[in-house]
Amino acid sequence: MRISRSTAGTAFVGGAMILTLTALAYPSMLGVQNTASGQDRIIANTQYGPLTEADRDFVVKVRAAGLWEQPLGQMIMERSKSPAMIEVAEHLLVGHGRLDAGCRKVSTDLGITLPNEPSPQQQQFVATAEGSSGKEFESTAVTLMRIAHGGIFPTIAKIRATTRNSMVRELADTTNDTVLDHITVLEKTGLINHEQVSFQITAPPKLPQEQTTPPPPQQGAPVRVLEVPENLKDLQTVAPNPSYGAPQPTPTAN
């Protein structure tokens, strides 16, 4: 997927990256009317257990993450020669390809409508990275993804702790491992500005819902598939074993 630069906002203001990541709080899903407050409302009883609004929202959220992070991984593959950045790209392509297969399976069995495009905000994330070059591109891409991956952790934990649906529970387990794997390879680049990450995760600005909601798929349109590249199908993308006391990479100045 190619996302136009025309949707890009200004990524750097006064030397600081200004990012809005309320897409991680995805309040309502495609084609479903909210008729009760609270996401614990059961919207379907299935053979895998009850499905709540929160369960459905989680599946769509995982799908939407792949719709912008996989194209960004492809962009890194095309632009970067650094082994650390190539590793990031490979793990993004494989991790989100496998998660997407899980989302498509869950959506079919549980009757969940999936988007085929990321939200306008997520499109802007890709366009912002695309509009930069060299080390700025690498730093922008890595920091955007580190903020997004860090921000999704509380959602994964809450779903894993509360869902009564076995398919959603399994997707949460896989998502947790994938996100931790991605955070690990992102941090290995040494390009992350941790002050920006901490600020954006703890105090994300608010955006209108239409900016953070993926558009519904066109009627009758086939579900888009995020493929795992053939040459990377054996790549392991699970959470790493701990290596206590390992030296940390020194962040590169932006």
Automatic annotation (TrEMBL):
Looking at the record, which segments are called Disordered?
Answer: 205-254
Highest taxon in the source lineage: Bacteria
UniProt name for this protein: Putative outer membrane protein
Instruction: Please list the residue ranges annotated as the DUF4142 domain.
Output: 54-184
